[in-house]
Amino acid sequence: MPAARGLRRAVIFLGPPGAGKGTQAKEVAQRYGLPHLSTGDMLRDHVGRGTSLGRRARPIMERGELVPDEIVLGMVEERVSRPDCANGFVFDGFPRTLPQAERLDEILRRRDLGHPLVLHFVVDADRLRQRLTGRRTCSVGGEIYNIYDRPPKVDGRCDNDGGELVQRSDDREEVIAERLAAYKRQTRPLVDYYRGLGVLRDVDGSGEVSAVTRAVLKILTQAD
Ligand code: AP5
Q1: Distance 20 CA to ligand 1 centre (A)
Q2: Which member of 9, 31, 131, 135 is catalytic?
């Protein structure tokens, strides 16, 4: 399918850990020529580089809790002020709390980007746990695999660049439970918030990757 261009809007991928937000958001960002902004990836980058932000975020992420709003908002404001975000962006894992959503509204108003389009991924808890424990990520390019559903051609190596596939430290059973609880407690209320604004679309995220991509692209085409 050729790249679709011209969606001058912020698109938000909202859903619990393991719902497939990253997998789908990367695909959409590429097709629409928009930057893919994952606050999880940004935070992991800070942790990996050992910045002061990363040192604050690391223990919180390892417990599966949410990083404080002021840390995330500072990082996001800086990122969206760059020129590549002038025509919209794809958010993956942001916003995750009501204060984050309200600040994003302000940012979008200032940039004349209107309301975001929110794709809400719905997947049952058992499937989420299996996806998270089976996830492996390329240490070079970040490509996402799953040992159960999306294995690489060669065990432990990325199909694209041969990079080593690694397991995220927060994909351990006990941390997964806390991440799911944090979602329910702090992020789930955003579903009602955005539904109330009339900008939320539910996506059944339980099908195979290509079926979910088709459903997402259909919604985006209608919103275009
Ligand atoms: P983050 O990195 O955002 O993690 P998350 O929200 O927990 O989401 P995941 O990345 O685990 O899952 P996903 O939905 O992207 O699924 P994926 O596509 O990888 O956040 C990590 C931490 O950072 C947080 O816990 C928090 O501490 C902090 N943080 C980040 N943002 C923050 C914020 N805004 N505020 C405060 N703190 C923040 O898929 C998962 C697996 O399933 C993969 O193996 C994939 O191959 C597989 N899969 C995907 N789709 C399918 C499918 N359709 N069928 C079969 N398998 C599939």
Answers
A1: 7
A2: 135
26, 58, 96, 103: which one is catalytic?
96
92 CA from centroid of ligand 1 (Å): 8
Catalytic residue among 127, 168, 172, 195: 168
Whole-angstrom Cα distance, residue 80 to residue 86? 8
- Would you give per-residue pLDDT tens digits along the chain (224 residues)? 434 456 788 999 999 999 999 999 999 999 999 999 999 999 999 999 999 999 999 999 999 999 999 999 999 999 999 999 988 999 999 999 999 999 999 999 998 888 999 999 999 999 999 999 999 999 999 999 999 989 999 999 999 999 999 999 999 988 999 999 999 999 999 999 999 999 999 999 999 999 999 999 999 998 86
Known active-site residue 26: no
Q: Which residues contact 180 (CB under 8 A, 6 or more apart)?
A: 16, 17, 125, 128
Q: Which of 13, 146, 183 to mutate to test the pocket of ligand 1 (most atoms within 8 A of CB)?
A: 146
Measured distance CA(116)–CA(9) in Å, rounded = 6
Residue nearest to atom 17 of ligand 1 (CA): 20
For residue 28, the surrounding DSSP H or E stretch is helix 21-32
